[in-house]
Predict the 3D structure of the following.
Amino acid sequence: MTNQKLDTKAFKRSLQQSENYHRRGFGHEEEVSGTMNSEYQSDLIQTIRDRNYRLEKGDVTIRLAESFGFCWGVERAIAMAYEAREHFPNEKIWITNEIIHNPTVNKRLQEMNVGFIELVGEEKDFSVVDSGDVVILPAFGASVQEMQLLNDKGCKIVDTTCPWVSKVWNSVEKHKKQDYTSIIHGKYAHEETVATSSFADRYLVVLNLKQAEYVTNYILNGGDREEFLAMFKNAYSEGFDPDRDLKQVGIANQTTMLKSETEQIGKLLEQTMMKKFGPTELNNHFMSFNTICDATQERQDAMFDLVEEDLSLMIVIGGFNSSNTTHLQEIAVEHNIPSYHIDSVERILDRDRLEQKPLDGDVAIVENWLPEGKITVGVTSGASTPDKVVADIIEKIFDLKAVAVV
Ligand code: SF4
């Protein structure tokens, strides 16, 4: 399917006016908020918050980041999914992807009889979805082609896309209107970036500053076109030509990337266009809107504060495919703190062994992860992690160090 000819803005506008499209709650807020509190909140975490994000028991001091866990957009998406179940008790309900990158929450939705659209090869199998079924779009959105397909099928669409993500899509629409190429800082295969790029006519996804430097060097000095296309394979729009399509660029981002890196990439491109075309021409070649999500920024800032403390180790909690959690882990690793990325308490196998996901590696067992004697454990969690999961892990650490939690 191609989006080259589709007027994505007009399509979204008409979709939003359809009676089959829902992007607000259904009036069951109170029941749902009670259910969510009982399933995902934790008294222990509240206690730690109340004690200045610190709790000491025996040899263990827990230092919780001052901003962590569920963000506003995630809570909203889960609440909307729960409400959809209440509101459509008899309809079949599907979700186009994991609602958020958290196994606990996704499992809960499965228990509530919400079906996940499966991948068959590289394509999602929408053949299971019938007219009249309810389909939930996750917090990080869905591609415009998927929305179109579901709309054509006559489904009821419950759109939980976070408004911060929609804000990025609006930026991309502005790039397109002026015939700019969108340079998206993100992971090209991540659901959010797939959705964002589906709104662009022309785009290039850059993963990090190093790739952005390669692009800016190409803009300034030219280079090997074939090498460029090979390096960014799968990360650009159909027919993209680096010799033709890098003269007017706009910046967009996956909302959960490292904030400082998104800013650096933006600055680098701005300076490059200024150098290439001169300061007076900058506005005809470069476009940027601030679309860094507050929640991502706050969690990263809190992590930067935490890693300045004297920590024996760091536990970073979140789904292994969660981009924002991985970036929190990156901060700890860069500060040379022994840091373990786990997604649930079950990953703590015992006093000596813990199963974790290293940066850029597969899940593996680490031995002797919990030091003897007095320790300070830094703890944080990604935007899709319920407090209860964090509490279970803290309790387990106290337990392993033989401390009773009161
Ligand atoms: S991390 Fe930001 S963009 Fe993503 S769901 Fe949360 S609030 Fe929205």
